[in-house]
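Allow me, if you will, to draw on your knowledge of protein folds for a short while. I have a record of one protein: its chain in single-letter code and its fold written as discrete structure tokens. Kindly check, if you would, that the fold set down in the tokens agrees with what the sequence suggests. Thank you for your consideration; the sequence and its tokens are set out here:
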Amino acid sequence: MSTHPQFKIITLDSINTTPNWTVHPFLDDTPSPALKQSLEESGILHPPVVQQAQDGTFNLVCGRRRLYAVRHYFKQTSLPCLVIQPALPPSAFFLYILTDQQSNGPLSPMEIAFFLNYCLGTMDEKDIADFFLPRLGYKKQTALIQRLTRLSTLEETIQRQVHHGLISDKTAFELLALPSKDRMTLSSLFDLLQPGTGKQNRIVTLSRDLALRSHKTISSLFAEQKFKEILVHKEMNPPQKAHTLLELLQKNSYPRSSEAEQLFKEKVRRLKLPDNYEITHSLNFEKDEVYLTKTFVDWESCEKDWHQKKQ
């Protein structure tokens, strides 16, 4: 028997579809509209990967959505598959999974977490770090494996948000330090406001610090009327709500700094500066220094202004 994988026509009834190796178990088997359209137009250009079992059947390794589409949309009874051998070294087996998934683009942070979890079941951490982390775009550091796999402990709702990019991996790691109820509160908040990574991190940091100082949970904090009014406001769009929410969090977290900021803005307003002038203060008013900035339309205007001032 050949030790190389082979393409074979396999009857669907002989394929076992247990989700043992799926790197996105938080998603259902229904293919995306893009995949369905691709299959309708071009057929299966990328066959599923199966492994022969001892009883003559085949265990599905990769391609659950492709298999679902063939069964439910096209009513086929067989399809071509890449058949890999029943006895493979773990690194070779998992390389088939990784290669198959990467053919559709880079893995999401959640897919990486589940993939590394599977590797940990049969491989040494150092071997995983040396063999797979560079293929995933990371340095060969074993500590990264434990950090990345922790994402798989998040609630499925959050896993889907991280997978689809609605929550950044940086924010996801911050959420891991919070109780489940607080994580789900922030998850709902991000689903409503859809803020970028920077605003996500600021919301997490400010709400966590404010809740800690107030001896409250983040969930109870956002249940307060002043926050609820922002979130249900009918005239503000999501970006406006996110901006207003952050202003309120900042004001409540650092009341003295917020008061100083308002006083500073009022002083600047009274100066009635031209549009191309701007005055800013030091970070958190740590120094008394202020900075006056003048914007020029081009280098020549800047140079001319400078020479006039030197005369």
